[in-house]
Design goal:
It is built from one helix and 15 strands; from the N terminus they run E-E-E-E-E-E-E-E-E-E-E-E-E-E-E-H. It has 255 residues and is mainly beta. The longest helix has 17 residues, at 233-249. The protein is globular and about 70 Å long.
Length: 255
């Protein structure tokens, strides 16, 4: 792994013309990351941010469409096949927590699969599971791999930075799902049945990897996290508080 020097930015000027000048644009700011995560990506600036801060795992673009308009976030298209793939695969029994700080963009209401493994209802058989942002700005929990979709009653307005976390515990008998959207109340459900995981390559994704229907809203993403455990309600709330503070230090106001 490449070693980089640490630089401290002083709050005052030093009157010495012999000292080298390093443009701030050449620096990468350090932020606290979630050391207990399977991986934590703090995104923005360049493709270098696709390398995680915890274990150095990479997000792999499915195709083109990822841009870096800011040091503090990346932008991605919402159409199927433009996602970023992790190395974590779903299975018929699986435990994880998927978290993102994101905002839908585009200027008009459009549906969006922010992350996960969801395939469209027209597929036979349907597979995967994701939050689903509707055109009415309502978040659904879509577990097509269990033939279920439930309106959570949570809202996802466009052009607002949201913290959204989905904790899943999948067994041979069904799934327990906890969904937290910022400071809104926790949504929890436990659909029964044998889960059908994502189609090949079965990778959990940031963006719409498998949903080739009408979910096309673009999104900006500041952070993406994966845990290999289903976080409890209290752990999700604590993670939200830490994430909100961390993003505030970057100039991002998370609701």
């Amino acid at each position: 792994m490449t070693a980089y020097p640490l630089v401290t930015i002083l709050p005052f000027e030093v009157d010495d013309d012999t000292l080298p000048i390093v443009p701030e644009s050449d620096l990468q700011r350090l932020y606290p990351y979630e050391a207990a995560a399977y991986e934590h990506w703090i995104l923005g600036g360049s493709a270098d941010s696709l390398i995680g801060r915890v274990n150095g795992r990479s997000l792999t673009p499915q195709s083109n469409g990822i841009t870096y308009p800011s040091e503090d976030y990346l932008s991605m298209l919402g159409t199927q096949g433009k996602a970023l793939l992790t190395d974590m695969e779903e299975s018929i029994t699986h435990t994880d927590t998927i978290v993102a700080v994101l905002r839908r963009t585009g200027g008009s209401p459009a549906a969006c699969v922010p992350f996960g493994t969801l395939s469209p209802s027209a597929d036979a058989p349907t597979t995967g599971c994701s939050p689903f942002f509707s055109t009415a700005d309502v978040i659904w929990n879509r577990a097509n791999g269990l033939n279920t979709g439930v309106s959570t009653g949570k809202t996802a307005p466009e052009d607002v930075w949201l913290f959204i976390a989905m904790a899943r515990s999948i067994t041979a008998l069904g799934m327990t799902i906890r969904l937290l959207v910022g400071g809104q109340t926790l949504h929890q459900e436990a659909p029964a049945g044998t889960y059908r995981p994502a189609a090949s390559p079965k990778k959990i994704a940031l963006g719409s990897a498998y949903f080739n229907s009408n979910a096309s809203a673009a999104q900006d993403v500041a952070e993406f996290l994966l845990f290999d455990q289903a976080l409890s309600a209290s752990a999700l709330a604590a993670l939200y508080a830490r994430t909100k503070a961390r993003c505030a230090d970057r100039g991002i106001t998370v609701v």
